[in-house]
């Protein structure tokens, strides 16, 4: 049986990425050109700057991915590309590039949902993992509790009503002067703080046990800081980071464990940038052990945006017969 090689492209936000994936689970190369340093100056991602940078970098990133994998475009069986959700101008760069290569080389074009990519990151290092399982996707733009029924077959059980988990991390980090992106900085600083020092609210949504809300805890942190400043009290940034992180982590763990039991699933995975958070990983590991659930998580490099995860998702879509035409467009609010 012939090997299937997918060249994957990801450009939905501020990472220009390309990867070559063999038979769906083996990553031959995974090249990521991050724009973080550029957007740091503005405290967040500037869409127009992101699009322009993608155009500058994309050919070079693809070249590197092919070279590192020791293949040429002639060896590639299909092109996988993220076509949504994300920033429209950023997505368009990857989609146009993917179409151009697929057309020139006369190979199939497979559009991939970005969240499907994040979930699929779990297949890379856990060769034995197969659906069904529950997956918590926590990133800068998304907080979804997804039942993965089969490859390409998803049911969203819960989602955030307001801010995404990563967005809350980034906003709180900015409020305590840590800069962008805040998630990794809060993760680090929290190790010096006391997670029980301040009680921030944990939102549970009535009648929607799997939904999330993070704007309340974010506001509560801002109020706490304002209160301290008004009273002229110095606040402890590490305690705020640790206590905020605990409030977010507790809710994520509680809802996920509730869902995994309610749906009778035996396997649970996490995905997305926030899934690299050390406190969240440890708490989920404990909770899964207590509940007799197998726990899966990707290495940090496969948690944040990358093209390897898109290549894995594209492989299963390819096997299922998904083929996109030259009219494939970027869809900023694409549904899973
Ligand atoms: O998956 P990702 O790269 O992009 C999106 O699809 O949104 O996620 C980026 C998000 C940012 O909000 C960043 O602050 C957060 O993931 N993040 C973390 C950590 N590393 C990245 N949040 C908490 N702890 C971390 N260690
Ligand atoms: Zn992402």
Query: What count of helical segments does DSSP give?
Result: 12
C-alpha geometry: globular
**H/E series, N to C?**
EEEHHEHEHHEEEHHHHEHEHH
* SSE class: alpha/beta
Residue fraction in strands: 15-25%
For the CA atoms, what is the radius of gyration? Answer: 20 Å
* Total tally of structural domains: 2
Oligomeric form: single chain
Helix content: 40-55%
CATH superfamily of the largest domain: ATPase, nucleotide binding domain
Low-confidence stretches: none
Strand order of the biggest β-sheet: 3-2-1-4-5
- Which fold name corresponds to the CATH topology of the largest domain? Nucleotidyltransferase, domain 5
Mean pLDDT: 97
Query: In the CATH hierarchy, what is the architecture of the largest domain at level 2?
Result: 2-Layer Sandwich
Count all strands and give the number. Answer: 10
Highest CATH level, the class of the largest domain? Alpha Beta
- Major β-sheet profile: 5 strands, mixed
What ligands can be seen in this structure?
5'-O-[(R)-(carboxyoxy)(hydroxy)phosphoryl]adenosine, zinc ion
Distance between the termini: 32 Å
Keywords, separated by commas or semicolons:
single chain, 336 residues, alpha/beta, Nucleotidyltransferase, domain 5, 2 domains, five-stranded mixed β-sheet, 10 strands, globular, binds 5'-O-[(R)-(carboxyoxy)(hydroxy)phosphoryl]adenosine, binds zinc ion
Could you describe the 3D structure shown?
By secondary structure, the chain is of the alpha/beta class. It folds into 2 domains: 5-121 and 306-319, Nucleotidyltransferase, domain 5, CATH 3.30.420; 131-297, ATPase, nucleotide binding domain (Nucleotidyltransferase, domain 5), CATH 3.30.420. 44% of the residues lie in helices and 19% in strands. It has 12 helices and 10 strands. The chain has helices at 36-40, 47-69, 88-105, 114-120, 122-125, 165-175, 182-189, 215-231, 237-262, 278-291, 300-303, 308-319, and strands spanning 5-10, 15-22, 26-34, 78-84, 109-113, 133-138, 143-150, 153-159, 267-271, 294-296. It has a 5-stranded mixed β-sheet, sandwiched between helices. A 5-stranded mixed β-sheet has the order 8-7-6-9-10, with helices on both faces. Helix 6 (165-175) crosses helix 7 and helix 9 (237-262) runs parallel beside helix 10 (278-291). The chain is globular and about 65 Å long. 49% of the residues are buried. It binds 5'-O-[(R)-(carboxyoxy)(hydroxy)phosphoryl]adenosine (KG4) and zinc ion (ZN). Its cofactor is Fe(2+).
């Amino acid at each position: 049986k012939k090997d299937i090689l997918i060249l994957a492209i990801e450009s939905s936000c501020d990472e220009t990425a390309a990867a070559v994936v063999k038979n769906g689970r083996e990553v031959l190369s995974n090249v990521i050109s991050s724009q973080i340093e550029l957007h740091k100056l503005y405290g967040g991602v500037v869409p127009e700057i992101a699009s322009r940078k993608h155009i500058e970098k994309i050919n070079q990133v693809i070249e590197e991915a092919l070279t590192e994998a020791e293949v040429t475009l002639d060896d590639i069986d299909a092109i996988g590309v993220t076509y949504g959700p994300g920033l429209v101008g950023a997505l368009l760069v990857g989609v146009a590039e993917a179409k151009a290569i697929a057309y020139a080389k006369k190979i199939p074009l497979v559009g991939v949902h970005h969240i499907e990519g994040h979930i699929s990151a779990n297949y890379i290092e856990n060769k034995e993992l197969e659906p069904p399982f529950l997956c918590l996707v926590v990133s800068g733009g998304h907080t979804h509790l997804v039942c993965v029924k089969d490859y390409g077959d998803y049911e969203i059980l819960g989602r955030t009503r307001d801010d995404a988990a990563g967005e809350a991390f980034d906003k709180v980090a900015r409020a305590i002067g840590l800069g962008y992106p805040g998630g990794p900085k809060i993760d680090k600083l929290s190790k010096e703080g006391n997670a029980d020092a301040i009680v921030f609210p944990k939102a549970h949504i009535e009648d929607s046990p799997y939904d999330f809300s993070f704007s309340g805890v974010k506001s509560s942190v801002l109020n706490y800081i304002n209160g301290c400043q008004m009273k002229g009290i110095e606040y402890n940034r590490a305690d705020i980071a640790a206590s905020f992180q605990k409030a977010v982590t507790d809710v994520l763990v509680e809802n996920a464990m509730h869902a995994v039991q309610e749906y009778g699933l035996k396997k649970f995975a996490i995905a997305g940038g926030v899934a690299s958070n050390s406190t969240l990983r440890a708490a989920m590991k404990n909770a899964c052990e207590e509940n007799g659930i197998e726990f899966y998580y990707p290495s940090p490099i496969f948690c944040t945006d990358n093209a390897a995860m898109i290549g894995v998702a594209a492989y299963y879509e390819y096997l299922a017969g998904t083929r996109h035409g030259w009219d494939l467009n970027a869809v900023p609010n694409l549904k899973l």
